[in-house]
Design a protein that fits this description.
Elements: H1 6-17, E1 22-25, H2 27-33, E2 42-45, H3 49-55, E3 60-65, E4 70-75, E5 78-84, E6 86-88, E7 100-102, H4 106-111, E8 121-123, E9 127-129, H5 134-140, E10 142-143, H6 149-155, H7 158-170, E11 173-174, H8 176-185, H9 194-205, H10 210-216, H11 218-224, H12 245-254, H13 261-269, H14 274-277, E12 279-280, E13 286-287, H15 291-305, H16 310-321, H17 331-341, H18 343-358, H19 365-385, H20 398-403, H21 409-423, H22 431-449
Parallel strand pairs: 2-5, 10-11
Antiparallel strand pairs: 1-2, 1-8, 3-4, 4-5, 6-7, 8-9, 12-13
Helix pairs in contact: 6-8, 7-9, 10-12, 12-13, 12-18, 13-16, 15-16, 17-18, 17-19, 18-19, 21-22
Length: 450
Amino acid sequence: MIPIPSHAQTALTVLEQNGYDAYLVGGCVRDSLLGDTPSDYDITTNATPQQVLAAFLAYHTVETGLQHGTVTVVIDSVPVEVTTFRIDGDYHDNRRPDCVTFTGNLRDDLARRDFTVNAMAYRPSTGLVDCFGGQQDLRARLIRCVGVPDIRFGEDALRILRALRFASVLGFTIEPETAKSIHKNKTLLTHIAAERIQAEFFKLLCGINPAPLLDEYRDVLAVFLPEITAMFGFAQHTKYHDSDVWHHSLRALASIEAHSLPLRLAAFLHDIGKPACFTMDEGGVGHFYGHAKQSVELARNLLNRLKCDNATKHAVLTLIEYHDAELASTKKSVKRWLGRLGPELFFDLLRLQAADSMAHAAPYVAPRLHALGQIRTLAQEVLDEGACFSLRDLAVNGRDMITLGLEGRQIGAALDYLLTLVIDGAAENEKTVLLHAARGWIEETNTSNT
Ligand code: ATP
Ligand code: MG
């Protein structure tokens, strides 16, 4: 028995009352059998899209992809995708079928699906339909292609990355034949649009334990992230490190919790600029001067190419830029950083620095983690005290500066000056005090300008 929420049950019932066959299918069946709560419920039916639209006349429907047979029905404000049983036509471009044909046969519809664990259907009246050994693979925690892997990856190369994504998110391994075919067919990924690669790759990065998978399939990643190859096996020649740049990055990634995309990306890419910045001194010690900046540039390029959204990109690049910054354990310094990055990004930076530290040679880990812990405590204190650390918290604002006769850039400069006074403890965050200080600053600037 699979638990079914009422909106999905309603969708099944409406189709059955209209005389059609209807089943839950794909991810929701897989996740339910695993005991997880599915993110959404997809339905497959022998009704044609026009018949589906007619059956759900009383509901809001969206013609999501009529030619592919998909109608979205909104029930109790929840969207449910209803797709007609279909067979995919021939594939000529390694990414989509030339045409799709509707079929009355559920088995045909399941056969076109990517992996056995995604190719099961269920309806309460007749139970589970599992034609390709999906249950067995779920129990063995295996990702296995439905059918012959080389053919399936040749049809749609995105499946290569989907296999890695499901393995990462579910914590499964990839069955040997499927794995072999992934390595063999990896270059077909060049036919896939960046947006689709991004969606799967970002989910893969946010999985349970992606590091071993990224390592085993690094040749596959390098097809769409050629920049990472410079990290493979790149020895660091310093006592602070006991792994090459690639394995160091994966170790850092491994200690970032799942579901934090910007942090996972930042950990993965924080040292990508190291190989290009490497120098060795006379003592045979390696240095990577300027690598944070170089990593930012490479990461920016890479994220742009993947069509990453701006908010994620900004967070990732900021974290990479400061991953090596020396943070002091003083309230003054902590307030400056809080002001510069904002609390959320600053706490993320502390987590990234901790993850980075944990991937260093053993003797250097504990002292650094200790210092970072102190900084985090200080930052929490600053927030709990409601202390002033940004222009927003300042007891005066731009209008006050205009009243004092300032204009244009002077306004920002004066406010920055006042914020520094407050953070440094040289002035109370109090309006009359700050107005007084501002007048002094204006006088001084005027004198120095004459
Ligand atoms: P999620 O929890 O991420 O939504 P999901 O299994 O529902 O997982 P979707 O990408 O939403 O994944 O796809 C829904 C279903 O459609 C899959 O379970 C699979 O049966 C089928 N499917 C999706 N993409 C492909 C593809 N490229 N090739 C073959 N079948 C696919
Ligand atoms: Mg889904």
